[in-house]
Amino acid sequence: MKPKILVIDDEKSLRFTFQRFLSDEGYEVDTAADYQEALLRIGQECYDVVFSDILLGDKTGIDVLRAIKEQIPLCPVIMVTGYPNIETASEALRLGAFDYISKPVVKKDLLQVARAAIKYRHVAEENERNRINLEAVFSSVGDGLIIVDQQGELQRANEAAQRIFQLDEEVLGQPYREALSNCSVRSCDLLQSTLETGRQGQLERIECDHSPNSRQVLTLLTSPLVNAVGEAIGAVLVTRDETRIDKLERSLRKRHNFHKMVGASNKMQELYCLLDDLADVPSTVLITGESGTGKELVAEALHKSGVRHNKPLVKVNCAALSDTLLESELFGHVRGSFTGAVKDRIGRFQKAEGGTIFLDEIGDISHKVQLRLLRVLQEREIERIGESMPTKVDIRIVAATNRNLAEMVRQGSFREDLYYRLKVITIPLPPLRERKDDIPLLVEHMIDKLNGTMGKEVTGISQEVAEFFQEYNWPGNIRELEHVMEYAFVRCRQPVVALGHLPEDLLATKDQNSDASPQVVEEDEVQSICKALEKTAWNKAKAARLLGIDRKTLYRKLAKYEIDA
Ligand SMILES: Nc1ncnc2c1ncn2[C@@H]1O[C@H](COP(=O)(O)OP(=O)(O)OP(=O)(O)O)[C@@H](O)[C@H]1O
């Protein structure tokens, strides 16, 4: 396509001369006699080059220049000046004119400047295209891009970088170490090294804390920026947020433990994934499972892995306190509200502010406390005993029970509305007999712990013990396993725990069929309990310890099987 040139001059003869010279050279030429006509032409056509007289009636070539820079910014404008007035010409150049030529116009000069202007126009267009492409890439790319100059000042940050590094607009122009102050020191050092050495750098999957609420995993790449003559002019930092993929990979990897919990079985993997999902949500959680299955450890893990981890975790064993005491412990009281309330006291709910409250044995609370708890769950506020002013609380409630709350609701001993509020998310813990493949790992963990506390050097358990542990039913779950291992450690004076080191009553179950029906299992349990009671002369605390269950569980079982002295 022929380059298009506009010639603006109020002298007809000059317009004619320009048109002839330029058309002969192969350009398409339009002319305008004054400022208004020039504006009209510029509005209709996109010219490659404009020649404009510097004097145009009551307007000047400078006015034309301004109008063109506004409408066709890349179009070079050449001033034609009748008087070789250096000031006007240099003013025009300052305002962005490409060049100027003086009248009378010499054909050779005119064509030379026209060619140079066309060439400039092509280069400017090419640059503009590149700039637009680069801008589109810069803003649309998912990776964070940060450009710093050689002095370390932050020049540009695309949207992704602003999101990843939690930057605001004002950081542009700041030293990058200040702008990225939340970032791991390692990423700033990487950038520094590239600025100093002019070499690329990379950091794979490092953990950063830009986002206060969650862990962030980033991969960083730095490259030097050089100008046309090879001088270093800065560096670019490319950041890929790999948090999601890292989380996915972790969830696919088989985990052997989670916080203090040990276990690699499928049931535990499911549990760890659920705990990951629940970590950062405020929902109330109900943990259910037999005694000794690790409900308290789960509550701790939930708290420690979530956003509230640096706030308090307050534990309350609801079964350990009398009704009045529990009420006052949970909600606090004002002085004189009941006999013994000698001074004001805040309750555990307030002590847990910002953190988590763990209500263990929730199935054991009275109707009165159930009602008060329901209000906390509904309104997220508490009232101290003897006070009618409610106080807002921000706490996550995690409750646990080994009782069948649904059954208790049916029997009318637990409020249905509270039950539904509590069980928004339920974590059922499997009994140990349903994840026996975790026993070797648990035993290994317990051996390490016991070697430490007892100063022994036990290396493992014998094959017979391992087999027996797989056959046994573990009614007291992990707590029972812990007690058995502790007992064996006391008895064991050799590197390997053998059958003979295990408690006698446990060994007595050895020849019984482990795949027995529930009825047979219950009969076995009754027998074990009776044996333990006889052995300890009906000292229930000692019997519970012997059985590897806690006292409350023993009481429950005595009631269930109607065993009495
Ligand atoms: N997955 C596990 N890994 C290692 N130790 C565990 C695990 N689960 C439980 N334990 C240990 O077993 C014992 C009992 O755990 P915990 O008190 O959490 O159980 P629980 O279900 O709350 O019992 P209860 O209902 O009787 O209160 C604790 O000493 C605990 O450290």
From TrEMBL:
Keyword Transcription regulation attributed: yes
Keyword entries, A-Z: ATP-binding, DNA-binding, Nucleotide-binding, Phosphoprotein, Transcription, Transcription regulation
Residues recorded with modification 4-aspartylphosphate: 53
Sigma-54 factor interaction domain: residues covered: 261-490
Domain of life: Bacteria
Any single biological process term in GO: phosphorelay signal transduction system
MF terms (GO), sorted A to Z: ATP binding; sequence-specific DNA binding
Residue ranges constituting the Response regulatory domain according to the UniProt record: 4-118
SMART domains according to UniProt: AAA (SM00382), PAS (SM00091), REC (SM00448)
Phosphoprotein keyword on record: yes
Name this polypeptide is given: Sigma-54-dependent Fis family transcriptional regulator
